[in-house]
Fold this protein.
Amino acid sequence: MDRAVRVLVVVSGAYIAAQILSDIGSLRIITLGGYAVDAGTLIYPFTFTLRDLVHKVGGKGTARTLIVLAAVINLLMAGYFALVSVLPADQVTGPQLEFGSVLSPVWGIVIASIIAEVASEMIDTEAYSRWVAWFGERTQWGRVLFSNSIAIPVDSAVFVGLATLFGVFDPAVAWSIFWVNVVLKGLVTVISIPWIYLVRPAPVHSSSH
């Protein structure tokens, strides 16, 4: 298998895994340093840089396809958890109420999360493409900072705004969740910048970068 294909498979798998784990984690609101934040924020920020890696290796079209695919998978996952939660439990094993109480989706979170993910990741894709059009393969660190700095506030604003509108978040903690989201995602962006230098664009896509 071609090295670029292997890298693309690994990075795409990591992106989808991070999306799934963050959506599950978002079902729980935790406290960090006295501030409320959804637990999905602990892992979701990495998806922005992982998306940038996919873009670099596979091109804009591949990045867009992956974004939509991840959204569909997350929606199917939520639907599957909801179905399993309402199916009759085995009487011998017991009611197994823990599954439903933990994984039965809060649909307000699910819908808000998926809409925010698609919108922000698509914006990230366009910002990344614009930076590459301006600077080519120079200042690769800049493309990550530029695209993520635009996408992150959009993602947090859409997610927190919709979740609050749907009644999932109390308006009293919405601003706290928003700012903690932005700060954590910004920190993860800075930490993950070196990742962009670990992959090379596939020759077949080099003209589109």
Observations:
- The two ends are 23 Å apart (CA to CA).
- The chain has one domain: 3-201.
- The chain has seven helices and two strands.
- The helical segments are 3-25, 46-58, 60-86, 97-103, 107-135, 140-165, 171-192.
